[in-house]
Amino acid sequence: MARRNCVVLALAALTLVGRALPSMAAQSEDSTGIIHTNSVEALQLATWVTASRDNGDRPFIVIDKVTAEVLIFDTAGLLQRVTPALLGIAKGDDATPGIGDKDLGEIGPAEKTTPAGRFFARIGPAKGDQTVLWVDFNTSVALHAVVTKNPAEHRLERLASPTPQDNRITFGCINVPAAFFEDVVRPIFGSNGGMVYILPESRFLIEVFPAFDMFAPPIKRTAEAVQQGS
Predict the structure, then answer these.
(1) How far is CA 211 from CA 45, 48, 190, in A?
(2) How far apart are CA 61 and CA 69, in angstroms?
(3) Continuous segment of H or E residues that includes residue 141
(4) Which of 5, 15, 28, 179 is 20 to 30 A from 39 in CA distance terms?
């Protein structure tokens, strides 16, 4: 079955656990008000988070690096918005030890990964008078408004492109449209923070999230598998 067609199954699963998707504006919304995403795995993980209450009473975000999407949910597990994102230029699911202590100029190409995992995230200050959502402070991974200081990187164009294949450009942080960060992330996460779940792209879901076992068999998440359809 084509991966995009599998989204219908994930939506059904969300309904089965009592968390139907609301009709709210998003990156891609049709005339019926349905929020669209290419990430069936993000919806599956969100179903588990909601059913198990792994997020406690906090809002949460699920990030799919393969489809380059950010899905944000409220405390009850209702999907609020979906947006494209820019991610670490290097493929991989682990952060290099000690990378949070390095200056940007000291970070090698292979170290520019967006690590997979479960994180407690808070809104906070960053260098350059920025406000970001700190996903993992120790490894300097944050979700924030897209950085456009270097026009040669074409970050706005990458966000607007129809495919995720050109969305790998950052040092490891997650870049989202400025309006999405200001109008969606900051109000929803507020001062109390929330959970962020970053899906793996080369490992099995249950390797990163051992408690996630309600959708079997596990899916090995690679860019090649997405392109071929799975």
Answers:
(1) 10, 9, 27
(2) 10
(3) strand 141-145
(4) 179
Please name the residues in contact with 88: beta carbons below 8 A apart, sequence gap of 6 or more.
Answer: 112, 113, 114, 168, 170, 171, 172, 173
Written as six digits, the tokens of 131 are 């406000």
The 10 Å Cβ neighbour count of residue 63 is: 25
How far is the C-alpha of 59 from the C-alpha of 214, rounded, in Å? 21
Cβ pair 8, 44 in contact under 8 A: no
Residue 17 reports pLDDT greater than 50? no
Question: What is the CA 134 to chain-centroid distance, rounded?
Answer: 13
CB atoms within 10 A of CB 71: 25
**Residues 153-205 pLDDT 10s:** 999 999 999 999 999 999 899 999 999 999 999 999 988 999 999 999 998 88
pLDDT exceeds 70 at position 13 = no
What are the structural domains of the chain? 4-228 (2.40.440.10)
Does residue 68 come out as left (phi exceeding 0), alpha (psi in the -120 to 50 range) or beta? left
DSSP state of 96: P
* 160 or 1: which leads in pLDDT: 160
- In this prediction, residue 118 carries a pLDDT of 96
pLDDT digits (tens, 9 = 90+) for 62-75: 999 999 999 999 99
